[in-house]
Amino acid sequence: MKLIFVTGNRNKLREARQILKGHDISGMKVELPELQGKPIDIAKRKAAMAAEIVGETCFVEDTALSFDALSGMPGPYIKDFEQAIGVEKLPRLLDGFSDKKASAIVTIGYCEPGKAPKVFQGVVRGKIVEARGISNFGWDPIFQPAGKRKTFAEMPAEEKNRISHRKKAFEKFNSFLER
Amino acid sequence: MKLIFVTGNRNKLREARQILKGHDISGMKVELPELQGKPIDIAKRKAAMAAEIVGETCFVEDTALSFDALSGMPGPYIKDFEQAIGVEKLPRLLDGFSDKKASAIVTIGYCEPGKAPKVFQGVVRGKIVEARGISNFGWDPIFQPAGKRKTFAEMPAEEKNRISHRKKAFEKFNSFLER
């Protein structure tokens, strides 16, 4: 199946190709607005916009980091928070809350032109900790998956990719494509 | 001058008409996406989208509450935060920070079809306090303007409207329209 992954990120494109074997995945940078809202709604709307603009079957990927104590916030806004105050200060948002649990979420939005979009979500539960490790991905140093002693940023890429929210979402998406 | 205020809120429309005397202001509800980004960029893009959809000169209004300690966050996302955890818990986001200063911001985006959008911003400086007073507007109980002993929610509407960020933005906008 021929699919367009709307992303400007080569690493994400490579990872998608590895998981979605047997499908012809092209990367394309499309100027889509960054939307406010719930991760599922954002992914659906972005996928629908992409399919309309490009005129072919498209998928998009959105990341969120949702704090339980903040009922899901910052969620899709985590990137703006991280850019504003830096990853080291992010845990201080929870200084007033005893519950440090959080979910790392990837939501894939998929849309065939003229059809209703679908979504596939991968979630890893964990907790917010003081920043440890160095990473390319913004908030990896403060997220420690449940049952692990390392943050995402302390894990070798291989180890992280085996259990990541992105991996889970792409596996669900792959199962759908295989059907 | 004939202008369309893109809003579904009758109170905002009435207030706009009071300040923008001598202009013909119609209210119109237009489905615009809620965008992520800086308040000025959001207002510009929404105004441009509205003018394109409606085909007439439009303006939009966006509110933000920006915490100094969080370098401007939650900013335009304050509504989602307030809906997620409730206004009483919002000050706890700053428990880990000694700086409680904040800005209440209204940004008006204005666009004539086919032209570049303009923005007019009203800012009131103040600080985040424990919720006091009751209000129709989400976060009024936790914002105390600098030099005042009351939160926005403790002020009679008249008193708030005399000094508000909305008033300031609309006065700038009015000066522009008068020129």
- Main interface pair? A-B, 26 and 26 residues
Radius of gyration of chain A in whole Å, from Cα? Answer: 16 Å
Q: What summary fits the major beta sheet of chain A?
A: 7 strands, mixed
Overall helicity of chain A: 25-40%
Explain what you see:
Two copies of one chain form a homodimer. By secondary structure, the first copy, chain A, is an alpha/beta fold. Chain A has a single domain, classed as Maf protein. Chain A has five helices and seven strands, in the order βαβαββαβββαα. In chain A, strands 1, 2, 3, 4, 5, 6 and 7 form a seven-stranded mixed beta sheet that branches. In chain A, a hairpin with a 6-residue loop joins strand 3 and strand 4 (74-75). Chain A is globular. The model of chain A has no long low-confidence stretch (mean pLDDT 94). The interface between A and B is medium-sized, with 26 and 26 residues.
Question: What key attributes describe this structure?
Answer:
homodimer, 31% helix, alpha/beta, 7-stranded mixed beta sheet
Summarize the topology.
Two copies of one chain form a homodimer.
Chain A: E1 2-6, H1 10-19, E2 24-28, H2 39-54, E3 58-67, E4 74-75, H3 78-85, E5 101-111, E6 118-128, E7 143-145, H4 157-163, H5 165-178
Parallel strand pairs in A: 1-2, 1-3
Antiparallel strand pairs in A: 3-4, 3-5, 5-6, 6-7
Give a brief description.
Two copies of one chain form a homodimer. Chain A has 179 residues and is an alpha/beta fold.
